[in-house]
UniProtKB/TrEMBL annotation:
This is DUF5618 domain-containing protein. Residues 11-131 form the DUF5618 domain.
Amino acid sequence: MLTKTREERTAAEEAQRYLENARTILTEKAGKKDGLYADVKYVKMASGTAYCAALLILDEFLKQKEGIHFKKPTSIEDYISRIRKYDKKLLRLLVDVYDELHLAGYYHGTKSVNTIQLGLTNVTKMLNYIAN
């Protein structure tokens, strides 16, 4: 079986791959007991990977909306202000994913399984915006 290179994958396929990698890290490395992850190092790694999937999705969404005028956002504030122009539901997902995966998961290293799983679910919902 031939594997596509990053250049050959669509943005949706690449984001899905990141999301699957994040889930694999959590399942195989983070360890779970009583609704908490055991190893914060892997929670941070998986959260960062899933958040990158969200950014790939947002970049593709903005490319589709802005066409030749697209320029990659440089901050979360830039993403928020630009997404706000096009879709309020995607904006809410972005803010939730930022809180759940970037701040709680990656930055603070939460051990909460519920928080991280909600973040992964929200990234999956975001995928619908670019999946054709």
